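The pair is quoted verbatim below.
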Amino acid sequence: MYDVKFTRHQNGEEMHENTAEAELSTGREEVLAWFDRYDRLVAAGDLDAMADMAAFPLNEVTDDADGFGIAGSCDRQKFLRQMREVVGGGADVTMQSTRQPTFLSPALCFVVTDTTFTVDGHEQQMRYGDLLMRTPEGWRFQTMVAGGWHGQM
């Protein structure tokens, strides 16, 4: 899935393609495990734990009612309000997702998700993207990109 064609230096030592590929493979596994955990928190309606997985302030990118792109910033309190409206903080939620991580670097990963989720019996399909960044504490999402969210912003 990854076609890594670079050599980089770490601590003055040259890293060859196979080392970089192994790092990205491990990173991919970490990112997918991160999403598994996040999905469990969504299903459980654990909004505070979901917010703990973010690097605030978040960037949010969507489109407006006229079809133009807009961007904004989101702090923890705003995120919790938005997720309360979407997830319901205790609603019956199921999700089926397919994710495609693309590493921009070993510490930055953009993930496109195609998902079908059901909240209290109402099914919806959606495509969205998240930029995750590796921090000393682990992966955190920092940017959310989705069409049709202008009402939330």
